[in-house]
Structure formats: C-alpha cells, structure tokens
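Structure in, sequence out. Go:
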C-alpha cells in the first residue's frame, strides 16, 4: 500500500514537471499533497506493526505440579483485559493470578521467583482494670502466622508468634519470622475506701467522755496522742488506705474528749451532798419532815425559855386578879 502511494505521488510529480511555468503553483500544491499522503500511510501502518508485537503471559493453573503455563499473545490482548495490572481493567475470571513474564531471558514461568513478603511484628495493647492486654497480628499479603500456645481474647502470658510464607510467596531475605510477645493480665486496681468519723460520748459524774474509732473496710487509723479509755483532751485521728485500696474523702479528724463532770460542791465525782431535811421542834422531841415556822432555839436553851414563859403567864394572872378585885370594891 505504501508502494502504491509512492508510485501515485511519483506519477503526479512527473506530470507536473512537464507543465509550463504558469502552472508552478498547482505543482507545489500537488507536492504538498504527496507528502501528506505519505505521512498518513505511515500513521495507519503503526497499529499494524504494534499488533504483531507478542508478550508472554504466565497463566495460573491452580496445579501444584505445574502452577503456571506460558502463553504468548499480542500485546493488546495481553494487557487489556487479560492482566490486572492494566489500570482501569479487571482481569477476566480465572486470570486473577496471571502475570506478565517481563524477563524475556526466562524460558518458562517456573523459573520466575516467587514474590517476597516481609512479616511484621504483632502488637500488644496495654491491660486495664477491667481486661487483659490484647494480642493483634499485623496482616501482610503472602504471610501466615501461628501462635503458640493458642491464643484467644482475654488470655495473658508469654506467646511465640511464627510467620511463614503462603503458597506462591517467599519470605524476604533477612526478615524476622519468630516473635516473642508478652500479653499482660488485667491490672489489680485498688478499690475505693472512705474513712468514717470517730464517735465521742459526753462525760458523766462517774467517768469522762469516750473516744471510739469507727472501722471501715480498707482503712487503717492512727490516734495522736495515743488514747486509752478514761483519757481526756484533744486527739487527732488520721486515716490511711490499706493495701489494695485508695482513700477517698476526709482523712483527718480532730476531736475533744471531755473530763468527767463535777457533781456537788467541793466534790470531784461521786454523789452530790444531800440537802438537810427541815424539822420542827415539839415537846418531847422533833417531828421530821414538818417545816419549823417557830423561832429556832438551840436544844441546850430549852429550860430557861420555859421558865420565862411560866413567869409571864403568872404575872398575867396576877394582874388579872388585881383588876377584878378593884372592880369589886367599887
């Protein structure tokens, strides 16, 4: 076809050479048309040449003894849509594992080395008060892991993780394949504990007040100064968390323990002095329990007072008689 175009151009140019000077411009136009035709022929010929280019595809067979078969196809059918590495195209069903044999020095697909993968170390999360740490395997294409002893969520202890290559893959040279990991158990978190304020009773005539330290789970106490029953004064009670507990709330208390009461004048403690019962003096003795409204006279002066009263009565009688006698005379 290219030869035909060249022959046509040559004839056209030969004919134009025999033209007169008046036809120079048409001849130039014909020459330009010849050049454009040749360029078009060259462009149209490119796809034909490309279609003759061959590539070798290693087609996966899923056979252990013969996993790949070499297939030579045109470049166009090889890349689109036969191989998955062609952007925008998905491989046909059954060709997902196919790959292009780029090394033309290789005679068969079996000589192609397996792709390499590098195992990554597993990760372990920290433990909490509610749960143990968590062992997580880091996924890598072409890598399989095995854990010894068997692990499940919630387990803790020492584990060995071994990585191996899956079929069709190889471990990268120098890559680590064994990992020793430690999974911590749940943390023994302390429980909350709250101190209870001490109790103090009031004093009595017989005893001072009493200090009582109230027990609370997870709390220990110290008293300063040291307290024993019967003591009085100001005391400081300090609370502290026992092992495995954390103290919340108030941790220190100051209390006053009062001394026993003073009951009765001049008497410290004991029963009060009884108040004397009032008595009434009568002849022949005293009558208890009856208030004495007469003038109190000491018992030792009772005789003289009686004589004075008798004398007063005698004088009164004598005076009365004198008055009566005078009246009769008249």
């Amino acid at each position: 076809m290219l030869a035909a175009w060249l022959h046509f151009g040559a004839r056209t140019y030969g004919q134009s050479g025999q033209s007169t000077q008046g036809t120079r411009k048409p001849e130039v136009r014909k020459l330009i048309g010849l050049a454009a035709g040749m360029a078009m022929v060259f462009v149209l010929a490119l796809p034909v040449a490309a279609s003759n280019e061959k590539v070798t595809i290693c087609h996966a067979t899923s056979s252990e003894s013969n996993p790949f078969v070499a297939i030579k196809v045109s470049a166009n059918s090889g890349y689109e849509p036969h191989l998955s590495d062609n952007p925008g195209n998905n491989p046909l069903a059954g060709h997902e594992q196919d790959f292009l044999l780029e090394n033309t020095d290789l005679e068969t697909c079996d000589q192609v080395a397996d792709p390499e993968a590098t195992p990554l170390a597993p990760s372990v999360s920290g433990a909490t008060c509610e749960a143990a740490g968590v062992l997580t395997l880091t996924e890598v294409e072409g890598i399989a892991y095995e854990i010894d002893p068997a692990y499940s969520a919630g387990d803790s202890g020492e584990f060995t993780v071994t990585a191996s290559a899956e079929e069709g893959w190889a471990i990268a040279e120098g890559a680590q394949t064994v990992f020793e990991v430690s999974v911590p158990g749940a943390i023994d978190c302390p429980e909350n504990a709250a101190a209870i304020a001490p109790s103090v009773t009031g004093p009595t005539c017989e005893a001072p007040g009493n200090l009582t330290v109230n027990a609370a789970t997870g709390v220990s106490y110290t008293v300063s100064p040291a307290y024993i029953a019967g003591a009085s004064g100001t005391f400081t009670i300090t609370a502290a968390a026992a092992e495995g507990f954390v103290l919340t709330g108030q941790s220190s208390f100051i209390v006053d323990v009062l001394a026993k009461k003073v009951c009765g004048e001049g008497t410290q403690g004991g029963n009060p002095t009884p108040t004397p019962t009032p008595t009434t003096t009568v002849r022949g003795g005293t009558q208890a329990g009856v208030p004495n409204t007469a003038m109190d006279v000491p018992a030792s002066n009772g005789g003289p007072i009686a004589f004075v009263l008798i004398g007063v009565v005698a004088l009164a009688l004598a005076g009365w008689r004198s008055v009566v006698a005078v009246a009769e005379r008249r």
